[in-house]
Amino acid sequence: MEIRAAVLRESGASTPYAESQPIQIETLTLDPPGEGEVLIKIKAASLCHSDLSVIDGSRPRPLPMALGHEAAGIVKKAGENVTEFVEGDHVVCIFVPTCGNCLPCKEGRPALCENGAKSNTAGTLLNGGIRLNSESGKVNHHVGVSAFAEHAVVSEHSLVKVQKSIPFETIALFGCAVITGVGAVANNAKIELGSTVGVVGLGGVGLNALLGAIASGASEVIAIDINDQKLELAKQLGATSVFNSSEEGAIEKIKEQTKGGLQYVFETAGVVPALEFAYQITRRGGTTVTSGLPHPDHHLSIQSVTLAAEEKTLKGSYLGSCVPTRDIPLYIDLFEKGQLPVDKLGFDFISLDEINEGFDRLLKGEHARIIIKM
Fold this sequence. Notes:
With 374 residues, the protein is α/β, with parallel strands linked by helices. 29% of the residues lie in helices and 27% in strands. Helix 6 packs across helix 7.
């Protein structure tokens, strides 16, 4: 079948993208689903910094590539031997397909699936196949999804079935921003009731970490960013206080207010200065968790002695260390009970043809999520 999809053929274009137009909307041929694969009609797909990192070249991927990964849609056809999905199911896409056979999968850590990482890096589906074609040849898949398109063929292991009662533009966020942010709090940090928490970087993932900390019973949740508009939103969502990290003396002010720092600090901005800031406001004996993805050439510099002398912990979080089939239904349940108000994060909507302008707006931090409605 023929589909319209957002294709990146060269990375590293100059901004604003509205002028350089690195992403082109092309007509591609989408092959039918093979064994263990599913054809879905994309209904909503949000713009994420993980897509942006491919566009600007900080996360190298094989090109050309059809972008997009945080999405929801409807199953149109299930391939051979697919038993979990049928036509009409509503689904959320997951950006790490899980094979179930590698050591991390067997240890219950599907976010670290070795075969999923291999296929994502290669730009293929989990089985190594490519289902997208242009007049000039194959077009690679973005993390097994390629959701900035009218339809997509994905591995059945890149999907989670969800309720039909929740709008697609809301449920789409559960496949990336929600599980990454809330999962970092619940799975990586496992914060205790009454903990003090800081969140550095208030994009979609950071705001979900904030919501996760509140839902987990944190007694103090401090939101930190360089964007005053995002800080105001954080206050509306329940942050007990906010700080602009670009202001002089911000670290000292936070440490003074918290009597030495915070028990748990989550860095979600994906830049080294933000992680350094997060580590510095983490108290003695505290834990810094990072889910940001900076450029691979960038390196973190900390006082190594503090890891031992102050018994600090610095740990990474990918996909919120989630088991998607377990955690997404749990987080949706919290949402439906009003304990995880994901729909209050601040959305804006664009068409597929406005995608370059949309990424300009994402860079400016105008909204927590900019969503393409198909």
